[in-house]
Amino acid sequence: METLTKKMDHVEKITRVMEVLCRDRATYSLRELERLTGVPKSTLHRILTSLERQEWVYKDPASGSFRPGIRFFLLNNRAFFYQELIEKAQKQMEHLVRQTNKTCLMSVLEGSVGLCIHSVEPPHPVKYVAHKGMAIPLHAGASGKVLLAFCNEHIRNRILAEVIPPEVDKQKLLAQLEEIRRKGYASSREEWIPHAGDISAPIFDRRGNFVAQIGVAGLASSFEGQEEEIAEMVKEAARNIGSSL
Questions:
Q1: CB atoms < 10 A from the CB of 20, how many?
Q2: Which of 84, 150, 169, 220 is the 20 to 30 A CA-CA neighbour of 60?
């Protein structure tokens, strides 16, 4: 009974923290959370650190204050969030299709899986086809590598340890992810689908929280000599979408 009581006490502390964080204001400092929840600072710090690792809580790197993370928001109203994201991205995705004459797709990291949530295709018959709900591999192709490169470090480490196939050279993959973060986009040729290439960039919300991936895909040969130009188009679309979130 004593062990059960301790567990319930800990759950109650976490509940109090999340209730405060979900009030109508942007962020709370550690001191404010201690005052409002009654949870001691040392215990509060451990709770917040654990929640941050799992993306339930987001810590602003500039101010050190806290707010609910993207994972909590998605669980609370996942369908609404995805629909809002799609609506805000639609015009930018259509514009990318007109600019590049390629299929534009947007995907998210759903647990340990990449998942396409929306795509816009060009009108011509020869094109890359993506559909809602399509699984995106995280170790091959620009779309999946962007999801893996920009997700929470603790989640990335878990995926690398538990999800990525054992035959994948993880040291090489880690080097590629570092390069993707440095450049701000990823490109690939025939890594996932024969004869297909893609260029992808991350979408961040206005608080700097990684939300999704956006990219264009088409025949691998159609990217030759245009990678940097197309990458800038994709990155600009990602910034425009992110500024509206």
A1: 17
A2: 84
**Burial, 27: exposed, middle or buried (Cβ in 10 Å; 0-12, 13-18, 19+)?**
middle
Query: Which one, of 92, 119, 88, lies nearest residue 218 by Cα?
Result: 119
Do residues 13 and 46 lie in contact, with contact meaning Cβ atoms separated by under 8 Å? no
Rounded to 5 degrees, what are φ and ψ at 59? -105, 120
Please, which residues bridge with residue 215 across strands? Answer: 105, 200
Question: For the segment 81-118, what is each residue's pLDDT rounded down to a tens digit?
Answer: 678 888 899 999 999 999 999 999 999 988 778 989 89
Distances (CA, A) of 96 to 83, 143, 215, 231: 19, 15, 9, 11
Instruction: Give the distance, in angstroms, between the CA of residue 102 and the centroid of all CA atoms in the same chain.
Output: 22
**Distance of alpha carbon 221 from alpha carbon 72, whole angstroms:** 41
Torsions phi, psi for 135 (to 5 deg): -75, 140
- Tell me how long the chain is: 245
pLDDT of 5 over the 60 cut: no
Query: What is the per-residue burial (b if ≥16 Cβ within 10 Å, else e) of 46-67?
Result: ebbeebbbebbbbbeeeeebbb
Average pLDDT over residues 148-157: 91
Output the average pLDDT for the chain.
86
Burial class (CB in 10 A: 0-12, 13-18, 19+), 168: middle
CB atoms within 10 A of CB 33: 22
CA-to-CA separations, 146 to 32, 107, 140, 185, in angstroms, rounded:
35, 10, 10, 7
**Structural tokens at position 242:** 């992110």
